[in-house]
Amino acid sequence: MRVSVLSLLIVLVSLLGPRSSAMAADGQLRVGCSFPSARSQVPLDGRMLLMISKDGSKEPRFQINDGANGQLIFGIDVNGLKPEAEAIFDGKVLGFPLRSLDRVPPGEYWVQGLLHRYETFHRADGHVVKLPMDRGEGQHWNRAPGNLYSTPRKVRIDPNKDELIRISLDQEIPPIAPPADTQYIKHVKIQSKLLSEFWGRPMHLGACVLLPEGFDEHPEARYPLIINHGHFPRTFGGFREEPPDPNLEPDYSERFKVHGYNRIVQEHAHQFYKEWIGPNTPRMIIIEVQHANPYYDDSYAVNSQNLGPYGDAIMYELIPFVEKKFRAIGAGWARFTYGGSTGGWEALAVQVFYPDEFNGCFAACPDPIDFRAYTVVDIYKDTSAYHVEGQWKRTPRPGLRDYLGHVSATLEQINHRELVLGTHSRSGDQWDIWEAVYSPVGPDGYPRRIWNKLTGEIDHAVAEYWRENYDLRYIMQRDWKTLGPKLRGKIHIYCGTMDNYYLNNAVYLTEEFLEQTRDPHYDGIVDYGERAEHCWNGDHERPNATSRLRYHQMYVDKIMERIRKTAPAGADLESWRY
């Protein structure tokens, strides 16, 4: 019997031939990342990331993206990693765009390690979770103060070689200095009672406040308040009191194919300043909310099982504080909201969820407002997020395109990059924050997945929860009998027909519903920019590269018209008109 088995093995080996070099090297190449005790004398939790790049023009940590030339990244969760101890990357560790270290072609590369540090939260719902707290950078793992990283160095990598490459995280990202107040821009911060109770530690909200010209000279004036929703603002964006920097070195915008786009940005910001202080601009207050949290640079301004009651905290804690401190009118007829992309979704969401508290929303290129078109996925009917399943083939779903329809990344690729950056919806990126905001809490305390992040298989039970709580079109349609009268004339939606993220698909479906509304008709606006890409805001006169720099000016006239039509009898329409 032993002779027969041995003979069989010999025959099999002769038929298969020698193992390929890749097979022989399986699990041999390893990279060990550690931090010295000089950086921390206590064990640390977080996500250890390994970046590998062919391009030495900048650090590998700044070359991880969904573009055609995005470089390699691999990730490992570490819990209680001790000083000098190594987190080991081998062929079994998930990477992006290459799935494994074993697939890296032999050659010379720039390598860098980084530890995205997590903190432990004991939430009010009884769950204990480890998450990266924002530290003033707006949830960017490659810039977060306190994160440890290594000095990039050039090494030869060969998956066929049995080798351990050691990397020491000898650097620490320094703190970010807070911005200074100016005559027009003020920065405020409050501790939120609601959020602190939810997260089990002090949690704060902030606002970057743009004051009108003459604010100090007119102490009797009370002003309308405009909330500009969007991603984390370090300070108020798009407003520059000084002229453009004459010594600014021109850059190149790959997206808009424009040289010197950084100077164009400064020119428009200074132009807005001149218009803001000019005699023809109505005197109002505009704020940008700072609500970065352990999952993202922005809370989506709604209440959430995973993020906590950010909607109520902003509406009933932060806004009243700002209105009292800066003499706003403090009534729903005098509040408006606008934003683009994330801010576009938020503008519509707060108008829907707090219909009496706002008198109009201007939602540009909003994140999916109808989950039948969750970009290109119908989460209620589709079984796979990553592929269109046919009888004989599987077609990848696109994730990112240009105005000609050229696809640069698929949904699967984008989600796999996020999975490498962080498990449990902790990448700090787009698909994970949608999941964190919209999903119920899972048994482990983290968001329940809308789909398997690796395979794309959709969980329709989670989808049903999303529909009932955050599908804005569905909620409006479900509740139109009571919501309709409160939303009449308040909804304005704008989107490019070639939005890079296919966000126009959900706008089409929402428009179908809105145009069919009766008792009352929605009496608002849905408008499209032909062939316009992401961030189109309703401007038919300018190219997207410049119109996206004029959000603040876009809606003032419409706001004033709405105030004239709807202000209640006896409302203050004079003290702020100087």
Explain the layout of strands and helices:
Blueprint: H1 2-16, H2 21-24, E1 29-34, E2 44-53, E3 72-81, E4 87-89, E5 95-96, E6 107-122, E7 128-131, E8 148-149, E9 153-157, E10 163-168, E11 171-172, E12 185-191, H3 193-199, E13 204-210, E14 225-229, E15 252-253, E16 258-259, H4 261-277, E17 285-290, E18 303-304, E19 308-309, H5 310-325, E20 335-340, H6 342-353, E21 361-364, E22 387-389, E23 394-396, E24 398-401, E25 407-410, H7 411-421, H8 430-438, H9 460-470, H10 472-478, H11 480-487, E26 491-496, H12 504-515, E27 525-529, H13 544-547, H14 551-554, H15 556-566
Parallel strand pairs: 1-10, 14-17, 14-20, 20-21, 21-26, 26-27
Antiparallel strand pairs: 1-4, 2-3, 2-6, 3-5, 6-7, 6-8, 6-9, 8-11, 12-13, 13-17, 15-16, 18-19, 22-23, 24-25
Helix pairs in contact: 10-11
List the keywords.
disordered N terminus, 578 residues, Rossmann fold, eight-stranded mixed beta sheet, 23% strand, eight-stranded antiparallel beta sheet, 15 helices
Parts with pLDDT < 50 across at least 5 consecutive residues:
1-27
Q: Would you tell me which CATH topology of the largest domain applies?
A: Rossmann fold
Could you say which structural class the secondary elements and strand pairing correspond to? alpha+beta
As an assembly, this protein is: single chain
Q: Report the average pLDDT across residues.
A: 94
Measure the end-to-end span.
Answer: 103 Å
Tell me what the CATH architecture of the largest domain is.
Answer: 3-Layer(aba) Sandwich
